[in-house]
Amino acid sequence: MPELCHSPFTLYGTSACHLCEQASALLALAVRESIISGYAEVDISADDELFLRYGLRIPVLRSHGGRELDGPFSPEQLLDFLEAEVPPQG
């Protein structure tokens, strides 16, 4: 599969998914709080391969390193996932 973005994290979902909207809001907060530098959103509904892979699991957050967190996820679960991917600042 080709690389879809250069962001450290990609959120896979659809526009009609309320859980995806909640996940996006949590990620936007993580950006505002400088926990992560950014993320990209990919709508899987326009891509058959992505829809087959993620359709029953969305929202799915994927790190650039390939780890995935299936939704729905709590703020605590998201923070644990992000902390495992982002080296400590200091």
Order of helices and strands, N to C?
EHEHEEH
CATH class label of the domain at 41-90: Alpha Beta
CATH architecture of the domain at 41-90, please? 3-Layer(aba) Sandwich
Share of helical residues: 25-40%
Strand order of the largest sheet: 2-1-3-4
From the 3D structure, determine the CATH topology of the domain at 41-90.
Answer: Glutaredoxin
The shape, in one word, is: globular
* CATH superfamily annotation of the domain at 41-90: Glutaredoxin
Largest sheet: 4 strands, mixed
What's the β-strand tally?
4
Q: What is the radius of gyration computed over CA atoms, rounded to a whole number of angstroms?
A: 12 Å
Mean pLDDT: 89
**Number of helix segments?**
3
**How far is it from the N-terminal to the C-terminal residue, by CA?**
35 Å
Oligomer: single chain
Pfam family, one: Glrx-like
InterPro entries: Glutaredoxin-like (IPR008554), Thioredoxin-like_sf (IPR036249)
Protein name: Thioredoxin family protein
Organism: Haliea salexigens
Describe the structure.
- There is one protein chain.
- A hairpin with a 4-residue loop joins β3 and β4.
- This protein has a domain at 41-90: Glutaredoxin (3-Layer(aba) Sandwich).
- The protein has a 4-stranded mixed β-sheet with strand order 2-1-3-4, covered by helices on one side.
- It is globular.
- Helices cover 37% and strands 18% of the residues.
- It is α+β, with helices and mostly antiparallel strands and 90 residues long.
